[in-house]
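User: Fold both of these, please.

Assistant: Here is the first one.
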Amino acid sequence: MPHSSSPAAGNVPAPVRNDSGPDAEAADPVTVNGFELIKELGHGANGTVYLARQTALDRRVALKVLSQEKAADPEFVKIFLAEARAAARLHCPRIVQAISAGQTADGRPWFAMELVEGGNVEDLLAANGKLPVHEAFRIAAAAAEGLEYAWENAHFIHGDIKPANLLIRRADGAIKIADLGLAGPTSRRRGPAMGTPMYAAPEVILPDMGERDFRSDMYSLGVTLYEMLTGAAPFSGTPAVIMEYHLHEIPKPIIRLMPELSPELADFIDRLLAKHPEDRPGSWSEVRQVLTAAAEATAAPPDHRETKPPPRRPRRPLLLAGGAVAIVLAVAAVVAVIRRCFF
């Protein structure tokens, strides 16, 4: 975004950075609807995310501003704002909290949300190739918990579950789902396919494959879990090739790549990746319970070495020692009697 030294109210130029030394005159901060932009955090096809400060409450937030291209679609803007406001009513520790939404003076929607300081699952995969089995199931179970809450409380589906949208808070490792403000009720999920091709459910790509609902997010979570466990998504190639695979190709069964998984757990992951929604699990509750149990079953056993009581000393040696002392004393007494009698 081009910077303007005197931005019009509501325009979103890039934040000014003063790199001329401590004595240089500080540039005026860029403010968007009560949010002072600090720096850019990320940039994608839909827009830009900034680190910002909500001036009224003096707190740091993440502020997403849609791109000019998206902002040029009035229907997209209308749905975006309606659903962002609806998402603000969801309160779940597994979901990035929406704070506010609005529109800049030049017609670009923005969306303010809780700032989660840390990284995301995509970062972990890039650094490590794949995740420990327990960690993969822990993350997937946490995501299922948040998606269950969104579905049960507002019939919200996310539409773009992927590693980059699963945030990991640095302070405690908590998992939070990002970009739920771009999701919405199933009644709105019509029209062009949304989401990222690598993780998109078949019915998201081709409506003839079934109705888009919460089970579409299950498929995307299944792809994400598959990648976390094996280090690679089920399909690769260009976006068009990957979408074709999602529609017609069966992923390599995960049991072949991870024979240490139980057959029941491997079959469950295969169910998440079923082509038709009706062949996937019937509720988020089921998914959450299975993934939580898997995380618990694969956790490393706790180390009890420091908490074990000291071993009890065997009693038999003590008895033997006591007998030896008695014998010594008896011998001494006999010697004393002999001395008195003969000397």
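And the second sequence with its predicted structure:
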Amino acid sequence: MVFARLMGMVLIVLTIVFVCLWFYARAAKREKLEAQWEKDQGPGRRDSFVSAELMSYEATLKRKLIWGVYVVPSALFAILIYVTNMG
């Protein structure tokens, strides 16, 4: 019961971290794309250029964040528990 409660709290914290990193990474990428468009005076309108590039970036961003926020820390936590209990 205690372990389930701990895992629930960890999941909530990791979800908050995921959402914060998602918004931060999108904002940073948007700034870079807008600066790139301003420098190159890219094709078409700035808004459509930024939107199109962000759509392709979001797919890779989601995959990276899921691995970096959920999978790797969870695996490390599981390894830590295993080593602690079997050691």
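The CA atoms of residues 67 and 73 lie 9 Å apart.
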